[in-house]
Each structure stands twice: as C-alpha cells, then as structure tokens.
Amino acid sequence: MNEYKDCTFEGCSRPERRGGYCHGHGNQLRRGMELRPLRAYTTSSPIYCKFEECNRGHHSYGYCEQHSRAHKRGQELRPIKQYRERQKKKKEEQG
Questions:
Q1: Hey, how many other C-beta atoms are within 10 angstroms of the C-beta on 77?
Q2: What is the CA radius of gyration of the chain?
Q3: Which uninterrupted H or E stretch holds 28?
Q4: SS3 of 56, please?
Q5: pLDDT at 83
Q6: How far is CA 75 from CA 34, 54, 72, in A?
Q7: pLDDT at position 28 over 70
Q8: Cβ contacts of residue 18 below 8 Å, gap of 6+?
Q9: CA dist 45 to 13, 56, 60, 74, Å?
Q10: How far apart are CA 95 and CA 91, in angstroms?
C-alpha cells in the first residue's frame, strides 16, 4: 500500500500531487488564485459495482460497464470472467 503525504494547505487531507499541494490546490496556485478550502467530495453513487461478486468501478445504474449493459438489456446479471483467467484456462486446455 502506498503512503501519501497530505496536501500542505492547512486543513486539507487530500494526497499531495504538485509541489506539496493536492491537485485542487495546485490548480489554484497555477491559475494565480488565492488558496482557499476545497469543497468536500460527496456522491450518492456507489464507488464500486453493486453486483455482489464484482469489484469493478461504478459506471451507471450503480453497476460497472458490463453489468450496466446487461441490466439495461434486462439480462440476468452474472459474474464477469477476467480476461487473464480465460487466457490461462485456454493454455491449460491446449497443453
């Protein structure tokens, strides 16, 4: 796990990106603006796909891109096989 330093702006706990500042405070500096607190990041959407067996990022309808597509089509949601797993299985079958 990576250890990140916090932004040097007082009260900001976002990870350091540019010259000791987070992305937002770095942009304020670059634009010549006075540094001010950033708005809190809030979202009502889940970060990950809401299909239990999936750990992919959220895309739409609370699902990842593949599960969202299946949901829109009215298809049954199933676990998505990982590409590497399929490739490994294919090699085992061949040799």
A1: 17
A2: 21
A3: helix 23-30
A4: coil
A5: 60
A6: 52, 16, 8
A7: yes
A8: 26, 29, 30
A9: 22, 14, 9, 21
A10: 6
Question: CA-to-CA distance for 84 and 22, rounded, in angstroms?
Answer: 35
16 vs 9: CA distance, rounded Å? 10
Identify residue 25 by its one-letter amino acid code. H
Q: Nearest 5°: phi and psi at 91?
A: -65, -40
Q: Which residues sit opposite 75 in a β-bridge?
A: none
**DSSP collapsed to 3 states, the chain:** CCCCCECCCCCCCCECCECCECHHHHHHHHCCCCCCCCCCCCCCCCCECCCCCCCCECCECCECHHHHHHHHHCCCCCCCCCHHHHHHHHHHHHC
Mean pLDDT over residues 30-58, rounded?
Answer: 82
